[in-house]
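job 3f2a | input accepted
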Amino acid sequence: MPGARLTVEERIVLADLLLAGATAAAIGRQLGRHRSTICREIKRNSLPSPYGYRPHAAHSQSCARAPRPKPRKLAPGTALRERVVSDLRRGWSPQQIAGRLAREHPDEPGLRVSHETIYHAWYVGGRGSLRLALQAEARIERSRRSTRDRPESLRGKISDAVPITQRPAEADDRRVPGHWEGDLVIGVGKSSAIATVVERASRFTLICGLPGGRRTAAAVNASLTSKITALPADLHRSLTWDRGKEMARHVDFTIATGIKVYFADPYSPWQRGTNENTNRLIRYYFPRGVADFRTISQEELDHVADLLNSRPRKVLGYRTPAEVLQELTVATTT
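job 3f2a | predicted structure (334 res):
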């Protein structure tokens, strides 16, 4: 049967035809096999000269190489499975898990697993599947991103606003740390909010609670200033924000932190793409239409920020934002 392994009877016919001088194409037609199958059989199972192709020896070699059932890498009870389950609980994607394991164990295949294997264990793993182990906890399926609407009343002219076109060029190439992007994440009913800022080079994230969830300029200024001033001065370079009025006190922020604020063009979220992508990740923990930030403590926000900052990213070579920020900080101070 085409596609199945050659039988011992077929190998005997092959040997006779080969001895008679038939070509691989002719043998293939005789056996109903593709000529590439015949060529591969002769190449793989022939004995060293002068013995050449021997059908019974070839059949024995082929059977010895036949794949045997292998233990599953993610079988229940294995250390690798426990590591994968743990990382899935932390919100890591299968690709992030596979990339991080490859980075941590480059010379130990037994401690690595492909993201395809993780997906397979999730979707078709049967009774021992990761799906049953984690239920709805893991970040396997992503919801489609939707455009976030902002109330028109929160937009308008901001005095002394410096456009993004005047932002230093070093902020664009992501080699120098200390250039940030920020925005608000709005809670259920648009009645509360948090402020988020992301460092462009490392993707290091800070999540700032606002008193009572209020998104006033005074509250945003105080919260951001408190978080930013706790960082080393080398990370105080620039902040890119949208045109929301919550940043109306940007001059006070600059005086307090030394960070110059630049404003993206109206309705141009791609100019703050790093922050937009990070806010999508934050929404995994605080779903749209559900989260009321008036009831969420700063400790909870810091915990989510720690989870994001310790998650390996493909764009960072499967290093974590915390690792990259540390490397960049050391490199720019030595």
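job 3f2a | The two ends are 68 Å apart (CA to CA).
job 3f2a | closed
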